[in-house]
């Protein structure tokens, strides 16, 4: 499990618009990397290129390389569907499938990918994934109820369980706590700490304290102005970023003197 | 642990670099996701949906083509010997009164139905008691679904009762050509006139226009309504300030849809109207619409007559097409921009 | 100086005015009743009797004027305008209800009086004018029936569904999921709009022209065999497809992008995401839209009569021979009674009975659409 990601000269476009310019980065396996920066700086966009989700938006394209353990996920003949099976993703807003029960939600990725599961395999996987997402104890008695009946924080953990049930190598999280209350946020942050034993985790967050709490390394993105591309300003140990960053721009943002 | 860091200088990007070349996406070698594998499942499914979409183009082209093909005999007859056409004076003098009758009946229906539709829509959305309003809305939707043949049946039952009203109209308003009585001072004995047909048409399109307008009124942003009320507006002032301006383009398009319905409506007119020659007066027997002409004559038609009726249908198709396009143009012009 | 002082003082000392003169709540009702009474009096004087339409129109006018006058003199102009607007809007509503209620009432009373189990299970096979004359003379019960028309309605509508639901739903999927607003997608949207506006009789003429051309090619001179139930089904499909496309498209666009992204992120291919996630989420809306479309075309008369003729007897074969549906049966019975003259009443009664069945069918379909939308919608949980 868990892979290293190398990003080389990554440019991202929406149609003719250059959204992100020249990103270089190396993300180590079994670590948590946080992307921080002001709104519109391209941090979510970069995250979405790591499992080729940005292509879902019409007109989006990239140039450059994203290597997972040395294999370019944008190489010729690479199927984005296969990439996404290796790289799971959790979204800003919890989005359990409304037509499915809690258990069906967890198994959705596996079932929809044509894997036949025996009843015991399915039960085992459900329990494993829900335990992995720290949700098992709360929902074990109502696995067949709709996932949309859970609280916001529980729904988000259900989505994490759904993502890890397909046993990805990498887990991407796009502001997973931005719609949650502080207690649910704490639960997710604890979970992220546990997840890093098995997965390479990349998390986008608006909340700098959160980045400081959960991540090993932090990447700071910034944008020069509207209509300009976002850039990676600094990528460093989280402790360095928050105590003694290399760049003045980072320092300004961290200390709130931004703009 | 090596620190791989940023790429470019962290200085401001703008002025120095050439934005033109900088903003352009890379050419084909670099944009690579187009080359991504297409799965057979995806290919089959997207092809199926594409074929379905293209079928719609084919059907519509077919409608025009086959109607044209069947009109061939009429066109040949019109060129070689116009006296063969019903009426003996060629196709255009045959179809002209029908077109006029169609337009008049649709126009009357629209003029009568629109104010009532607006009233009902306003009443059910802003004035009716809260608990009653959704029920009324639902009843309107149900009425919109009643088949036109039932309206026709009802119109026949009703027509006889209108002769008194028509007599009164011709007595007091006979100086207006559309209410003029026949030469001997009488009006239609059966009441089965174009005016009756138009009134039934207006009742038919009433629920349709209402249910569309209602939907628009319900979408009025709550904030705008509250803003008006907070300024001290009365309910009517609020409706005039917030609801009506917001719904303007919606009302126009709902009306136009109603017009389209009235133009193409066959059965109610075919059942109610006892057809005759084109006359200006709407309270005496006479007049005919296109759809009704086809419905009344098609079952017995053969040969050239059949072809004539299909050609008349083609004319109706073109008229409704023009009306719909005109409606769309109006809607595009009046729609609120950037709201 | 002095004046300025006084105004300032006045503004400071004067308490905010929150109450204003208001008419008692019962006033509109009193005015309305008075208006009706006045209208009745005028009706007696000017028209020599009680004339319901005259009274209604007069009462409405007098009421509007009186409400305005009373309110304007007591509450002020703005309030009066508000009241008169309310009065006018309410009266248009009441006035418009009259014909609609009359329609429903006639259908239920006339249809209800005529309908019987026999009418529902018999056809017009062997129907003679003599039988109707006997019925009108009170010597026999109402003969004939419209079982054949019910069968025809069901068969033709089912065939139309089989043709139009797949085409309509797939087209909507193409428009929402695949077209990305490209040229073809825009063209299809435009043409679907155009199709919505096709008059129903033109749709019928198209289907007839299509099949009689085909029949002419296969069997020259036998264009008559083009009139079948299937031809009618094709005509109905032309009317039904745009409704299905529109409704389905609207519903599919409501499915949040979040769900599609969640599915893609699990490594699920696009087509499977559509089939397993998007469609199940929107199935209630799609089905209810389809039901509305069925309710809409099941009452169509014109396209059926030009494509399937008027059958008097039972025909289970969609591909051969004429067929009747409830709407064409109603039309045919009313306009071409079995026995002309006084005995035409019998045909008219059959028509009203069939109308009652048809209206009930349409209402049930509409109700069904509502129920489907509620019951099958994704559960909110809790």
UniProtKB/TrEMBL annotation, chain A:
Top-rank EC class of the record's enzyme: hydrolase
SUPFAM superfamilies assigned: P-loop containing nucleoside triphosphate hydrolases (SSF52540)
GO molecular function: ATP binding; ATP hydrolysis activity; phosphate transmembrane transporter activity
Tree of life domain: Bacteria
Residues of the ABC transporter domain: 5-248
A cellular component term, taken from the record's GO annotations: membrane
KW Calcium (keyword) present: no
GO BP annotation list: phosphate ion transmembrane transport
Alphabetized Pfam families for the sequence: ABC_tran
Enzyme Commission number(s): 3.6.3.27
The entry's keywords: ATP-binding, Hydrolase, Nucleotide-binding, Translocase, Transport
Translocase is among the record's keywords: yes
Protein name: Phosphate ABC transporter ATP-binding protein, PhoT family
Organism: Brevibacterium iodinum ATCC 49514
InterPro entries xref list: AAA+_ATPase, ABC_transporter-like_ATP-bd, ABC_transporter-like_CS, P-loop_NTPase, PstB-like
UniProtKB/TrEMBL annotation, chain B:
Primary localization class, coarse: membrane
Keyword Membrane: yes
Chain ranges passing through the membrane: 44-68, 94-123, 135-159, 165-182, 194-218, 238-259, 306-327
Region Disordered, residue ranges: 1-35
InterPro entries tied to this protein: MetI-like (IPR000515), MetI-like_sf (IPR035906), Phosphate_PstC (IPR011864), Phosphate_Transport_Permease (IPR051124)
UniProt keyword terms in alphabetical order: Cell membrane, Membrane, Phosphate transport, Transmembrane, Transmembrane helix, Transport
Bias-annotated ranges (Low complexity): 1-23
Residue ranges that the Swiss-Prot or TrEMBL entry lists as coiled coil: none
CDD domains, per database record: TM_PBP2
Pfam families in the record: BPD_transp_1
Family assignment from sequence similarity: Belongs to the binding-protein-dependent transport system permease family. CysTW subfamily.
Protein name: Phosphate transport system permease protein
UniProtKB/TrEMBL annotation, chain C:
Signal sequence coordinates: none
Keywords, comma-separated and alphabetical: Cell membrane, Membrane, Phosphate transport, Transmembrane, Transmembrane helix, Transport
Gene3D superfamilies from the UniProt entry: MetI-like
Membrane-spanning residues: 26-46, 52-72, 84-106, 146-176, 188-211, 217-245, 351-373
PROSITE patterns reported for this sequence: ABC_TM1 (PS50928)
Pfam families reported in the protein's UniProt record: BPD_transp_1 (PF00528)
Membrane association type: Multi-pass membrane protein
Compartments where located: Cell membrane
Coiled-coil blocks: none
Domain ABC transmembrane type-1: 150-369
InterPro entries on file: MetI-like (IPR000515), MetI-like_sf (IPR035906), Phosphate_PstA (IPR005672), Phosphate_transprt_permease (IPR051408)
Family label: Belongs to the binding-protein-dependent transport system permease family. CysTW subfamily.
Functional note: Part of the binding-protein-dependent transport system for phosphate; probably responsible for the translocation of the substrate across the membrane.
Protein name: Phosphate transport system permease protein PstA
Organism: Brevibacterium sediminis
